[in-house]
Write a structure and sequence with these properties.
Blueprint (H helix, E strand, L loop, with lengths): L2 E5 L5 E7 L2 E8 L5 H16 L8 E5 L5 H18 L3 E4 L1 H6 L5 E7 L5 E7 L2 E9 L1 H8 L6 E4 L2 H4 L1 H8 L3 E3 L9 H13 L18 H10 L1
Parallel strand pairs: 1-4, 4-5, 6-9, 9-10
Antiparallel strand pairs: 1-2, 2-3, 6-7, 7-8
Helix pairs in contact: 4-6
Length: 226
């Protein structure tokens, strides 16, 4: 069993291939350039270096959001194209679930949502507590003060708002290692293995994004129609 997982939902992009034993290939990029320039060449190089082909894959996993609207669309379009061309199932993975995967204790993934907000949720030992939200970092800190234990932050906003989190939470604030701040494909691939075994797959027509709020373009369109 081989699963290729792709992530373009944030400021960085990544891809990984997992089999029964674990991650066997990975690609990561945080160049700051549009994902349309870096992503597919990086995936091609990753597969070539590992001696693999897309045709070897049994499923494709993709992060569906929340995150960058443009980035999510790139990932979804790629997964749909591969799923249809290779006749393999698609495994949707929520970005926050990937960021919290296999982290013990309390984990709080945070992705920069702009407008002084973060996309976030709270997990304990990988299990979701509550709901997915878009909130201000200050409100999030107030909510996290209920925990009398360390809180591990993952995701790109963990670095963006590190000073605030440390000021509000003190020693309870723990920032994850750098590879868990930006790159989601590897944990998404491992999580997708479990989903595949449980039959949690979709086809290209069923695959859809997971947004926590509408894009600015959609907001303007709605205001124009009011």
């Amino acid at each position: 069993m081989k699963i290729i997982a792709i992530d373009t939902a944030s400021s960085a992009c990544s891809a990984a291939v997992a089999d029964e034993k674990g991650i066997i290939a990975h690609f990561e990029c945080a160049s700051g350039k549009p994902h349309s320039l870096d992503f597919l060449p990086g995936v091609a190089a990753m597969l070539e270096e590992a001696g693999l082909k897309l045709a070897d894959m049994d499923a494709v996993a993709v992060t569906i959001g929340p995150g960058s609207f443009t980035g999510i669309r790139i990932g979804l379009a790629t997964a749909k194209a591969w799923g249809q061309a290779l006749h393999i199932p698609i495994i949707p993975v929520i970005t926050l679930d990937a960021l919290s995967y296999n982290i013990e204790g309390v984990c709080c993934p945070v992705l920069d949502a702009r407008k002084n907000e973060v996309y976030t949720a709270v997990y304990r030992d990988g299990k979701l507590l509550g709901e997915y939200r878009a909130v201000s970092p200050s409100v999030l800190c107030d909510d996290l003060k209920q925990f009398d234990e360390p809180v591990c932050f993952t995701g790109d906003a963990a670095a963006v708002y590190a000073d605030l989190f440390e000021k509000e939470l003190g020693e309870k604030f723990i920032k994850a290692d750098d590879d868990r701040l930006l790159f989601m494909a590897a944990p998404a691939a491992l999580l997708a293995r479990e989903k595949l075994l449980q039959g949690e797959t979709v086809d290209a027509l069923e695959l859809d994004a997971f947004y926590l709020r509408v894009s600015e373009a959609e907001q303007k369109r709605m205001q124009k129609n009011d």
